[in-house]
Write a structure and sequence with these properties.
M1 Pyruvate Kinase, Domain 3; elongated; seven-stranded mixed beta sheet; TIM Barrel; 496 residues
Length: 496
């Protein structure tokens, strides 16, 4: 046993609360907003089942977000939870400007101009926040407004660099509504001036994940990772899939990113909406194969912004996302500005637990055999066989150790029925792994013999009420311990 084992034994924690919180395998991401931005309300949501809090940088001030970060840190220090923080960058979101009279009625067949000149819009000329619109769009390309509620087609580019369009699908256009260009290869950078300002703030705080909006290629991911490396921050990068170009380059984007978010809102606008369910299914499958956490987002339980119960279709949507193998489900307005944020989390938790108890597809190892060409073949083989062994002996715990997070993500990808507990000496990973399916992470930085380390980990889990005497445990690690090699040891033991 380690000399300093007592520093890992938190007698003051509510162990039962921590155990119950870890029982749900599919994680919940909740967006912070006016409805839940106090310490008490955030803690209330955590107790109801939240694993990750999302800070939406499209709204709110840095001052407010700094306060929220402080509250979450306090929860992690004093409560039996490891809650991650996800910073979601706004990205190059295109919008129309202000409109004369507060709205404009667009009638099919009408023609008007889009301009990059900052004007109050009229029925003949409307500002769009994109300087290069006239350079990027081509005749015949469609432009969608207000999440696809209105649709126009490009007729011509004028000598004054305005874009003449004809209304195909009419309706009322309101100020500041979004503009989507599903047919256009836009030249905007993935990181806008606002994003760079927000990143300056993010790099000064303990943010675990950064979500990059409107990703079009792997280069977008690598540019952000370069900035993170330069600042020596520990944040990992999530690529938001919400554009046709991202779907086209999906394999490469998954490979370069640390995680994926299926942002179904803009995805359903940019692509034919009937394609979205199959794209979601495909993305989840590919992420599991690459051991990358995947979040399903947008309108999961939107009716509960106002109502106390979800629609039946929303319940089915949540259940299907769980069955498909998503690591996490994300709530937006439901918790940020809804009337019943705690109730939403409680309801989603109930759905997840019901599916995981009665219909979940555990132990997906037959889909994920280690690949001979993989540079991590040997450690992959250990993780694969650890999950197989845990299934064969009906283990109560599957324990991993990690320096980079890879072992945690890999064990999770097999979706084992045995609870996954990951130990790491890198404090930032403890919270980051909260996004990964089924994983509960703990800080541990002893370098004793491997047998002593394994025993320490079992003792810590017993003290925290995750294990009891007689439970079968499958452990993975590496030896020699001090060299911090990839996982190369597999052991089965009984908790004493």
């Amino acid at each position: 046993m380690a000399k300093h084992i007592e520093k890992y034994l938190h007698q003051e924690y509510d162990n039962e609360a921590g155990r119950l919180h870890a029982y749900k395998r599919t994680k919940i991401v909740a967006t912070v907003g006016p409805a839940c931005d106090t310490y008490d309300k955030l803690l209330e949501l955590v107790k109801a089942g939240v694993n990750v809090f999302r800070l939406n940088f499209s709204h709110g001030s840095h001052q407010d977000k700094a306060k929220t970060i402080e509250f979450i840190q306090q929860i992690n220090k004093t409560q039996p939870y490891s809650i991650a923080i996800l910073a979601d960058l706004q990205g190059p979101k295109l919008r129309v400007g202000e409109l004369e009279g507060g709205s404009i009625e667009l009638i099919p067949g009408d023609e008007f101009l889009f301009t990059n000149e900052k004007i109050i819009g009229t029925k003949s000329r409307i500002f769009v926040s994109y300087d290069n619109l006239h350079q990027d769009v081509k005749k015949g390309e469609k432009i969608l407004l207000d999440d696809g509620k209105l649709e126009v087609v490009v007729e011509e580019i004028t000598p004054s660099n305005d874009v003449c369009v004809k209304v195909l699908l009419g309706g009322t256009l309101f100020p500041k509504k979004g503009v989507n260009l599903p047919d256009t290869n836009i030249s905007l950078p993935a990181l806008t001036a606002k994003d760079l300002t927000d990143l300056d703030f993010i790099f000064q705080h303990p943010i675990d994940w950064i979500a990059l909006s409107f990703v079009r290629s792997p280069d977008c991911i690598n540019n952000l990772k370069d900035l993170i490396r330069k600042t020596k921050h520990n944040a990992k990068v999530i690529a938001k899939i919400e554009m046709p170009q991202a779907v086209k380059h999906l394999r490469e984007i998954i490979r370069e990113s640390d995680g994926i978010m299926i942002a179904r809102g803009d995805l359903g606008v940019e692509l034919p909406i009937e394609e979205v369910p199959l794209i979601q299914k495909d993305i989840i499958k590919k992420c599991i194969h690459r051991a990358k956490p995947v979040i399903v987002a947008t309108q999961m339980m939107e009716s509960m912004i106002e109502r106390t119960k979800p629609n039946r279709s929303e319940v089915t949507d949540v259940a299907n996302a769980v069955l498909e193998g998503a690591d996490a489900l994300m709530l937006s307005g439901e918790t940020a500005m809804g009337s019943h944020p705690k109730l939403v989390i409680e309801t989603m938790t109930k759905i997840i637990l019901e599916v995981e108890a009665k219909a979940y597809y555990y132990n997906r190892d037959e889909m994920l055999r280690p690949q001979a060409h993989s540079p991590s073949l040997l450690s992959d083989a250990i993780c694969y066989n650890a999950c197989k062994l845990a299934e064969d002996v009906n283990a109560e715990a599957l324990i991993g150790m990690t320096q980079s997070g890879y072992t945690g993500f890999m064990l999770s990808s097999y979706r084992p029925k045995a609870p996954i507990y990951v130990f790491t000496k890198k404090r930032s990973l403890v919270n980051q792994l909260s996004l990964s399916w089924g994983v509960r992470a703990f800080f541990y930085d002893e370098e004793e013999s491997l047998d002593e380390i394994f025993q320490d980990q079992i003792n810590i889990l017993k003290q925290r009420s995750f294990l009891k005497k007689g439970d079968v445990v499958v452990s993975t690690g590496s030896t020699p311990v001090h060299l911090h090699l990839p996982t190369n040891v597999l052991k089965i033991a009984t908790a004493e």
